[in-house]
Structure formats: structure tokens, C-alpha cells
Amino acid sequence: MGRAHEVRKVAMAKTAAKKAKLYSRYGKEIYLAAKAGGPELDGNLALRRLVEKAKKEQVPADVIKRAIDKVKSGVTEDYAPIQFEGFGPNNSTLIVKCLTDNINRTISQVRPAFTKSKSKLGAEGSVAYLYNVESTVIFNGMDEEAALDALIMAEVDAKDITTLEDGRIKIIGEPTDLYKIKTAIEEAKPDVEFDVDEITTTPQDYVELDGEDMMLFERLMDLLNDCDDVDQIFHNVSNYDDGEEE
Questions:
Q1: What is the CATH number of domain 2-72?
Q2: Is 50 exceeded by the pLDDT of residue 96?
Q3: Which residues contact 123 (CB under 8 A, 6 or more apart)?
């Protein structure tokens, strides 16, 4: 079967691991939303929107149901967010986000991933300032003027409104304004479907790696993805293959 088969096998394994991370993250987030506002979708707007987003990202229905059923059955789990910032090879940077019920365990998983790949954990704030954290909403069915009018009517400020090449509208706002932006657009266009509606963490500048630098970075990413408590990893390496297939 040769080299092509092995490459595809590795890519498929990365994709499977990424899906498992996604399901785990949504399971915890849905549980927390149901615990905070009640397990009934009709009475918990945050939960309903989270479930809608999970379905859009093809999270299986049983993953969603199990998370909500935990709350209904009285199961108690306490998760806390923790963020790590670090430096990889050749000016690469990473932000690692976790949602954990045992912070000491999480630290004991994440720290060795950096040391084993000749990378370095940074102090809080050492990397975050190099990234933009914003609400990003993308949708069809409006022009820029109509979208701006909808936001003004709802008294919602946006950092930027642009028309993409395919005609969709992209709105960028403060991370705390995601639901306000969505609600404003929904009120103006009730049948709107959002292609993207999330809090995005994007680097202000990118780097490209090759040779040993790329090998070390790939090792770091593999080790971090193997950590059960790691939910999301953001980085500035433009030519890293995350294994996601079309």
C-alpha cells in the first residue's frame, strides 16, 4: 500500500482525534450550560444556542443527550477553564485552552508536552497579546447596510462589517457581544442561518516552519492533543497540517 496509505492513515487518525476533542469539549460545555440555566432547551437560551452550534458541527445527538441527562439525573461535575500560553520553535506561539475538573492533573499533562518538544511554557499574558479574541459571525441574505441598520436598531457595536467574495456578510465584534450580534441579525431576518458564529482566537501574524522546527512543532501538537484535558489549541503556524479532511 506504500507511503500514500501511511500518510492517509496518519491524517485520518488526526481527524478522528480532533473529532473526539470536539465531542468532549461540547459535552462539557453543554453540561455546564444545562447546569447553570436548566436542562430544558425552551427555557435556557444559552443551552439552546450551544446545542444548535454543536449540531452544526456534527456532534452526535447521543453526546448532546448524555451531557444534558447528567444534569437531569443530578450528576455533579465541576469544570474550570484554564489557559496555557507558550513558545514553540522559531517564533511560533500557542494558546492552549482546557476545561478541567482537576487543574493539577491538567498542568502535569501540558507541561511535559512543551519540555519534550524543546518548547517553553510562558507566563500568563506572554502570548495572548499577540492574538485577537473576537466574536465572528458570517451569514447570507443581507447586505452591509441592512446588517449595520440591524445592529444600530439593537444598539450593538461592531468592530467591522465586510462583504466576503462569495457575497456573505462577516461581522466582527467584541467577544462579549456574540449573542447580541446574533440576536440583532435574527430579529431583522428571522430565517437567517449562520455559517459561523463563534468566539475566534486568531494570531496577528503568522510564521512558517520547516525541517527540524516543523518536526518539533508537530511533536508538540501531537503531545498536546494526546492530553485528555486539552480542548482547543490556537497557534500562528500557517503551514501546519491539522489533519482535517474535506
A1: 1.10.10.200
A2: yes
A3: 85
